[in-house]
Amino acid sequence: MIFGLPGSAKPHTGLIAWIHGKLGLDQQLESALVYCSRLGPPHVPWLEPDVNDRMQELKAEGIDGVIVVPPGFVSDHMEVKYDLDTEAAQTAARLDMAYLRADSVGTDPSFVAGLVDAALERSAQYRARALNRQR
């Protein structure tokens, strides 16, 4: 199960293809794009399908475990900790399903180095534009 934002089907399929390649599997992994939140102000409905509802459907289909990957979140903030680590984990336990949530990138050195590189590149672009305007 992959969590994402509306219109994020391409990152979802790209992630599954990457995982498939890294694992060297003979079969394509089955996956579903599901949500654990809403996008926008409180009057906007929650995004669907909901992770807990989908787990119930999977259990009814005979699936006995899920791996949850939240690529839309770069850190384990309260939404991830509560919606996934608490609520979804409790749903899985109630359904007697194995449940594993992949870590978010958080402070992974490669991720942080990429952020630093992007910031330095953007800063250099800004400085170059500022110098050009002064001329």
TrEMBL record:
Its EC number is 4.99.1.9. GO terms for molecular function: ferrochelatase activity. One of its GO terms (biological process) is heme biosynthetic process. It holds the Pfam family Ferrochelatase. The keyword Iron applies. Transmembrane segments: none annotated. Keywords: Heme biosynthesis, Iron, Lyase, Porphyrin biosynthesis. The keyword Protein transport does not apply. It catalyses: Fe-coproporphyrin III + 2 H(+) = coproporphyrin III + Fe(2+). Belongs to the ferrochelatase family. This is coproporphyrin ferrochelatase.
